[in-house]
Specification:
Blueprint: H1 3-9, H2 20-29, H3 33-41, H4 46-59, H5 62-72, H6 81-96
Length: 98
């Protein structure tokens, strides 16, 4: 699945088999921060921490975001939220395979 296909899927139901970090991004794209945060919190992996960091950055909680970026192994993002969402989605979809 491409990032564009993934983004387009947010108009309907999530694709079966999405990881929790991808489900978090999916819900975020639909404007449901609480659901997105719930999925990110459930995933105790670097990918989950990366999405968690992004979500707290979106929320405006830079201190909490910094903590999660450190846990993820990724630097604090300096790009727009939209660009970061796409970067994370691309990385996670690439890791998932076609």
């Amino acid at each position: 699945m491409t990032v564009d296909e993934f983004r387009e899927s947010t108009k309907g139901a999530p694709a079966p088999g999405l990881s929790r970090p991808l489900l978090a991004l999916w819900h975020d794209a639909r404007g449901d921060w609480a659901a997105a945060h719930g999925f990110a919190q459930e995933e105790d992996t670097p990918d989950g921490a990366w999405v968690h960091a992004y979500l707290h950055r979106r929320e405006g909680d830079q201190g909490n975001a910094g903590y999660w970026y450190r846990r993820s192994g990724h630097p604090v993002a300096g790009c727009s939220l939209e660009e970061e969402w796409s970067q994370i989605a691309e990385a996670l979809l690439g890791a998932k395979g076609p």
